Every structure is written in C-alpha cells, then in structure tokens.
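Trying the structure run again after the queue cleared.
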Amino acid sequence: MSPSPTTPRRAAAPRSFVLAVITATALYGVLATYSIHSRLPFNTVRLPGERSHLSGPFSIQFVLPQGWKFFTKSPREPELALYRRLDSGTWEHVNPLPVSDSSGFFRLDRTARAQGVEMALLTHAIPAFDWKARCRRSDEDCLGDTVPVRTVRNLTPTPTLCGTIGFVAREPLPWAWASHRDTTRMPASSLVLRVQC
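Done. Tokens:
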C-alpha cells in the first residue's frame, strides 16, 4: 500500500511581516486621527501632544498644511457654464472635452483637464462688477442681454476658447427644491468676453 498524499501546509507569515503591517496600520491611523481632528471646530477633546491655538509642542498643520479642503469643492459654489457665440448670433453650449472615450485617448490627452484652467485664467482678472448679475432666465437669454465687456488674450499654449465666449455662473438648486427642478431657475451672473488666441 502506498502512503496517502499529505496536503501541503501553508507557510505562516513571518512574525516580522505581521508586526510591520500592524505598526504601519497603527501609524496611518494615528496620522489620520490627528489630521481630521485638527480640522474640526473647537471642542473638549484634546489628543496627546496636540497643540491648541494657544500653546503646545506639536501641530499636525505643520506636516499637512492644506487640510481636507484642498481635495473638495463647496457644493454651494456656482456652476460655471461655457458658451461660444456663432456667426449667426446664437449661443452654442461648449461642453467640456471628453476625457474617458477614445477621442481623448482614454485620459491620456490632458487637453480636457486643461480647459478648466483655461476658463479660470480668462476670468481671473475680470472684476466682479463686470459680471451682469441676477438673471433668472435661460443661459442663452442672459447672454443675449450681456455685451462683451472687454477683450482678453488667451495665453495658454493650446487654446480651446477663442472668439466671443460667454460665461454663466448659476447658483445650484438647493436640495429642498429638487422636486421643482423643472420650474425653478436659480439666479445667474453672466459675462461675455472677446478672446484673442
């Protein structure tokens, strides 16, 4: 009779590896706890060694100065829509360039990502009083009543916005009014620029 085959034993993870994983997890947990707690409003909880606004030896803001706001955008910030005036005088909505299809080389072409920066560069130097405020009609109607306020030069290396460009910044619809989305229009500000490339 032949001996029965034995099942191979699974090798146990080395003790040093397990200890390293536990240590790394604990360090990341402590770092996350201090980072999140430093951005909370003043409260009675004080972490060991944490510096208050008055005194103390350590502040996580020296290590992570940007905080979590760096990664987020306020949901109450106005939504910016972009339009181009056609030769016929009508306004055409300029959709952001696609980033996830084959025409954008499946995100390898960064032109779509640069369009937001291009919009910001064009509008950054424009004073707030140049925006026409409080229009409650459609974006095209708001832009139709807005005259070009100035001519700006598009200095980006590969410009996508040239000619007469309209910007409409509309406040987002509050969640409480979501069921009235079709009948409620939030106020908008509009701006028209002549953009030279």
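The chain has two domains: 15-62, 79-195. Worth checking whether this holds up in the mutant runs.
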